[in-house]
């Protein structure tokens, strides 16, 4: 990107709305409640052909550094220091407020150049506030309506002087976009094929209940206070994606909002946060489920784990706060029992104990992430699959159908990876019992070493060539 633009201002002036307008999609949560945005978020933006990086920040508030609002302000100040230019938004309809004047004085002392933007100026409702903003001493304000896309041409003219005309890397996209897979010839050879690591970043989402240490883990990996953390539960609201590199492998880590039980989610804002988290799960390749060492795999944790597996994502369980565990042996025993009884469909889910606050066990977690990602991409040769299927049928033949005829399993192949998905051509697919399907899945895991990843088997009926 040629330059970086930070959007700053007091709460509820439309910063996230402008952020979404510039990046061309609804990435940041927008709500009428002030102070929705807490962490800073960046993404590539395009304004009438001008490419740049834009940063959405939390609303500026006057609070002590020990409070949540004070920590949010520190995040905004870091974004301002990283930016080449700042857009200072005011609400044109509400007019100037003492808070706007206070932060305008602070911005005049900063080295980062500031462009004054009067938002919500559709029609003539914001004219008075725009004229009042001349008194801030930040130059001529730009009338804008982020909601309706008005005034973007004037904003482009104000940003053009800061463009450095650097070449733009079109492959550097924000977020994970599934690419079409090149299906290798899996009939060559006789061993399970695990493709080499791809060049694009591995997409990892960190999920869990509130206050389990998800943002603390991200900060530990990055080696800086990138995410807003604190003793309060539910600090994170947006799903924030950050770039990271571990032992030469590029990663995109998504820090998500905590998911509470559906019966406890009442506010519309929390519903938006949960929806954002669920979308992050669907777009991820590997999902790390964070648990509290003293509350291992309760009902809500199991609900999240089942959701991840149903989406076909690779799952790693991270037991955080291990340094503060009251009874470690009991926690491990409870974890193993709950996995065996409540998630029997995916055997061998990798589990790692760690302390994100003390940076203990984090490397073990990343090793488990890459190992499960390799299995998630594994392919089994068709010839070996069918030899295995013949052995399974010989050892335990399928039951009889309703017409007292043996159900025939004729052929098997792997149709895709991510997760490993197989197709079996069966004479009567509707009558093959679920118990026999579990028998086949367990056999696949035992023989081909596919423990810990979700497996999908589709039953298909072969076409009858004489039907016509």
From TrEMBL:
GTP 2 binds at residues 208-215, 255-259, 320-323. Keywords: GTP-binding, Nucleotide-binding, Repeat, Ribosome biogenesis. The gene is der. It holds the Pfam family KH_dom-like. The keyword Signal does not apply. It comes from Insolitispirillum peregrinum. CDD domains: EngA1 (cd01894), EngA2 (cd01895). NCBIfam families: GTPase_EngA, small_GTP. One of its GO terms (molecular function) is GTP binding. The keyword Magnesium does not apply. Associates with the 50S ribosomal subunit. One of its GO terms (biological process) is ribosome biogenesis. This is GTPase Der. Belongs to the TRAFAC class TrmE-Era-EngA-EngB-Septin-like GTPase superfamily. EngA (Der) GTPase family. GTPase that plays an essential role in the late steps of ribosome biogenesis. GTP 1 binds at residues 9-16, 56-60, 119-122. HAMAP family: GTPase_Der (MF_00195). It comes from the Bacteria. PROSITE patterns: G_ENGA. Gene3D superfamilies: 3.30.300.20, P-loop containing nucleotide triphosphate hydrolases. Residues 3-167, 202-377 form the EngA-type G domain.
């Amino acid at each position: 990107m040629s330059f970086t633009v930070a959007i700053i201002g007091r709460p509820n002036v439309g910063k996230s709305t402008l952020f979404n307008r510039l990046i061309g999609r609804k990435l940041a949560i927008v709500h009428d409640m002030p102070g929705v945005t807490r962490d800073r978020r960046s993404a590539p933006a395009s304004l009438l052909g001008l490419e740049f990086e834009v940063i959405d920040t939390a609303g500026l508030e006057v609070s002590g550094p020990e409070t949540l609002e004070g920590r949010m302000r520190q995040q905004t100040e870091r974004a301002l220091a990283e930016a080449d230019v700042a857009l200072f938004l005011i609400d044109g309809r509400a007019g100037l407020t003492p808070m706007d004047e206070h932060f305008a004085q602070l911005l005049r002392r900063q080295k980062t150049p500031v462009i004054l933007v009067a938002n919500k100026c559709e029609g003539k409702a914001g004219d008075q506030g725009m004229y009042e903003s001349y008194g801030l001493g930040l130059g001529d304000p730009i009338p804008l309506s982020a909601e309706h896309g008005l005034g973007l041409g004037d904003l482009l003219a104000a940003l053009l002087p800061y463009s450095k005309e650097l070449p733009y890397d079109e492959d550097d996209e924000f977020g994970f976009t599934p690419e079409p897979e090149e299906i290798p010839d899996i009939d060559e050879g006789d061993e399970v094929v695990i493709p080499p690591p791809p060049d694009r970043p591995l997409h990892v989402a960190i999920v869990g209940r509130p206050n389990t240490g998800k943002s603390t883990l991200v900060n530990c990996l990055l080696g800086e206070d990138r995410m807003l953390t604190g003793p309060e539960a539910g600090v994170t609201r947006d799903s924030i994606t950050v770039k990271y590199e571990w032992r030469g492998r590029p990663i995109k880590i998504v820090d998500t909002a905590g998911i509470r039980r559906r019966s406890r989610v009442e506010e519309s804002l929390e519903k938006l946060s949960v929806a954002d988290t669920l979308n992050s799960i669907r777009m991820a390749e590997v999902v790390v489920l964070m648990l509290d060492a003293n509350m291992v795999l309760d009902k809500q944790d199991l609900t999240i784990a089942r959701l991840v597996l149903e989406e076909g994502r690779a799952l790693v369980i991270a037991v955080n706060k291990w340094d503060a565990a009251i009874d470690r042996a009991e926690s491990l025993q409870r974890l193993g029992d709950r996995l065996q009884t409540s998630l029997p469909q995916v055997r061998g889910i990798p589990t790692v104990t760690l302390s994100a606050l003390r940076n203990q066990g984090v490397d073990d977690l990343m090793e488990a992430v890459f190992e499960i990602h390799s299995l998630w991409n594994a392919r089994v040769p068709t010839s070996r699959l069918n030899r295995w299927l013949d052995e399974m049928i010989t050892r335990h033949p399928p039951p009889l159908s309703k017409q007292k005829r043996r159900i025939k399993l004729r052929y098997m192949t792997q149709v895709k990876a991510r997760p490993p998905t197989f197709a079996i051509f069966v004479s009567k697919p509707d009558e093959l019992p679920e118990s026999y399907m579990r028998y086949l899945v367990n056999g696949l895991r035992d023989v081909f070493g596919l423990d810990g990843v979700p497996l999908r088997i589709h039953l298909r009926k072969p076409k009858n060539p004489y039907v016509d």
